[in-house]
Amino acid sequence: MANLTSTVAIPKTDIVLYTAGTPNGQKVSITLEELGLKYETHKIDISKNTQKEDWFLRINPNGRIPAIVDRTSKSDGKTQETPVFEGGAIMLYLVQKYDPNNKISYPFDTDKYWEMVEWLVWMQSGIGPMQGQANHFYRYAPEKIPYAINRYQTETKRLYSCLEDRLAQQLAGNRTADPHTKASHAGPEGIINKSEEQGSEGPWLVGDKCTLADLACFSWVNWAEWAGVDVKEFKEISGWVDRINSREAVKRGLDVPEPFAMKEKMKSKEGEEEFQKMHSQWVMKGQEADQQKHK
Predict the structure, then answer these.
(1) What SS3 state is found at 140?
(2) Which of 11, 74, 187, 249 is deepest in the core (most CB within 10 A)?
């Protein structure tokens, strides 16, 4: 019988991450940290529209962060620079290439793999765009439009309700361990090292461990208050966010390319206003540049 506790060695990686301290950027830096991969960070100064410069557009034609360039040597010793853009695509690329032990993923083409992809794509097409619009109209728009604010905050809450229901179903369906005990990791899809057990209590979105699906959704839900949404209204989400925030790799990933300041700033009115003013400037500057280019 095969030894289910054996692990496959991960190659020494050489990856460049182009990012900024936003939900989209953080989900990739968190993934890199969770996998323990070697990478260097290139901060993209969105306030200066660096992401629109020609050199960056050759990496990501869409002119958005995050993006990576993988310079890791191949098995034959040859090097080839592989650019990958879009957060969800980067996350899938990283686990396919560098998560042979399925620490934060499941084996390709298994049922759990496709469930993980479903929730990752759900975040990319749902929470990300909708909460992003809630952020814009609630925090940045020069004119406060109640309809727009209510529209996108309501849709964000609807999506959170979907997430809440999923976590509750996972718990009720016994697809994870009791939330007060360590999750079960029996079987080849659940191998985990003792050193990696921190934060393994469920429920999780897919199966009995934290995966890309959780990390992707978390990257936006962790910014809920910035969109004017109170995550405390959602019991299962609140516990889930706390569990993910407690993971050491997540703490490191949130501080890339600079310390994550939003939650600390939100503790005072002055800090909140300062953070909002700083971000409003680059958001509106970027919008004005796009409007001029695409008249």
Answers:
(1) helix
(2) 249
